[in-house]
Specification:
single chain; 335 residues; alpha/beta; 10 helices; binds ligand FNR; NADPH dehydrogenase activity; YqjM-like; Aldolase_TIM
Length: 335
């Protein structure tokens, strides 16, 4: 199944292999503009026959960057570089999406940082300012404008970053959201920020929409996988196409990852919410990826670090599964 096509919201991927979004921290001039590095790094994985690449967390506001070296999509000046990246990847026969993100209280950018409530991530972190109601509205609008730019750049998929303790996750989690204004309180109120981001994005974007969430917050008072199955049903009702099931990062927690450790989360969300899922986290072997798909535990497999180590992992996997796949025509029988 790994090398069977997958169609989602009218977009057909040539296989089920997705490159997970990974920050390259390569905008050394702090402009957030696409750099030569990105134009080499991403198309190399397209040459390697990855079906879908998701470009790293790209900040919807300068303050929403994790670091000053992050990629950005906060201004119209960013569109041209993204358009070039899309053109290069399409030229090698792969599809390409972008993850739009706001780091919230986990931003390491100098100056004030923002979050739902004035609660720092840990004792070493800066205390964020609680977003005012205007700040909330402006931030939602920043996600919408980022989606509009992603569309102008020609991306095939938009992924909203709702995981890893960044701003959207901070709204969802009772550990970081103590608001009393309709954006905090019970589960539905904590979901309101993400609800409005999704609704806003959908006013400018009608292509496949993915949301990455941390389906386990690893804290007794945090959201549980059951809570995320509930949120996934809400997202499905809003027209989200796929939940990319990551975990952690909401609060400091010692996680001991092992191969496929987040796959049961993707499986649970898929079964209980009836929505397509992506599995991610220490998926490195072809048979392991095949098992996830054959047992209907997820619809797509996302690989992170293994695709950093081996940009041609699809070829490695095809050999292991004894499947013939096409390589770049230029390589002919050398592939
Ligand atoms: C990441 N990860 C990540 N996740 C995300 O949602 N947005 C991002 O921009 C990043 N950035 C990032 C950079 C680097 C260098 C690494 C290694 C990881 C997490 C990544 O997408 C993936 O979920 C994890 O790495 C787990 O998958 P693997 O690496 O075990 O396949």
């Amino acid at each position: 199944m790994l090398f069977t096509p997958f169609t989602i919201k009218g977009l057909t991927l040539k296989n089920r292999i997705v490159m997970s979004p990974m920050c390259m921290y390569s905008c050394m001039d702090e402009s957030g503009l696409v750099q030569d590095w990105h134009k080499i790094h991403y198309p190399a994985r397209a040459v390697g026959q990855v079906g879908l690449l998701i470009v790293e967390a790209s900040a919807v506001t300068p303050q929403g960057r994790i670091s000053v070296h992050d990629l950005g999509i906060w201004s119209d000046a960013h569109v041209e570089g993204h358009r070039e990246l899309v053109r290069l990847v399409h030229g090698q026969g792969s599809k390409i999406g972008i993850q739009i993100a706001h780091a919230g209280r986990k931003s390491e950018v100098p100056g004030a940082i923002v979050a739902p409530s004035a609660i720092p991530f840990d004792e070493k972190s800066r205390t964020p300012e609680a977003l005012s109601s205007e700040g909330v509205a402006e931030t939602i609008e920043a996600f919408v404008q980022a989606a509009r730019r992603a569309k102008e750049a020609g991306y095939d998929v938009i992924e909203i970053h709702g995981a890893h303790g960044y701003l959207i996750n901070e709204f969802l989690s009772p550990l970081s959201n103590r608001r009393e204004d309709g954006y905090g309180g019970d589960r539905d109120k904590r979901y309101r920020f993400l609800r409005e981001v999704i609704d806003g994005v959908k006013t400018v974007w009608d292509g496949p929409l993915f949301v990455r969430v941390s389906t386990n917050e690893y804290h007794p008072e945090g959201n549980t996988p059951d809570d995320y199955a509930y949120y996934a049903r809400l997202m499905k009702d809003q027209g989200v196409d796929l939940i990319d099931c990551s975990s952690g990062g909401t609060v400091p927690a010692a996680i001991k990852p092992f191969p496929g450790y987040q796959v049961p989360l993707a499986e649970k969300i898929r079964r209980e919410a009836g929505i397509a899922t992506g599995a991610v986290g220490l998926i490195t072997e072809a048979q392991q990826a095949e098992e996830i798909l054959q047992n209907e535990r997820a619809d797509l497999v996302f690989l992170g670090r293994e695709l950093l180590r081996d940009p041609y992992w699809p070829r490695t996997a095809a050999k292991a599964l004894r499947v013939e796949i096409e390589g770049p025509t230029q390589y002919g029988r050398g592939w």
